[in-house]
Amino acid sequence: MYYKAFVASFLLLITLCAFKCDKDSDYIGDDIYTAEVKSITSCARFYACVITKGDIDPGLVDNSWEHDGQTYSKAFVVQNYCEFPTRLKAGESFRFRIIKKQPRNNCQVCTIGILNAPSKNLSIKVIQ
Asked: I need a labelling partner for 15 at 20 to 30 A (CA). Which of 4, 30, 35, 44 fits?
């Protein structure tokens, strides 16, 4: 009887540790990037950003995005826009990590056509 209780407790401990001990499993890689917000359409919660610090896989970002007469590399649209801090304004920088999870995006947005957006999207976690 004690053996069954010990085994059950041990299995419970391993299960809990698998969920809590691996806290970084939600991220893609260990890299922390810095980006600048370049364009915001607030009612649509559209955020176009450019990575200013950090080496990233070129396949994850748009390396030829034109905006306001300039061409940018390492550009992306924030895919999980409902989780992006609304306090960040165009021209401001922030640090982030890329996350694996797909966004739910259940916040209210207006329907508006966004022209000339970067062709790549990233789900990110802003860190400060």
From this structure: 30
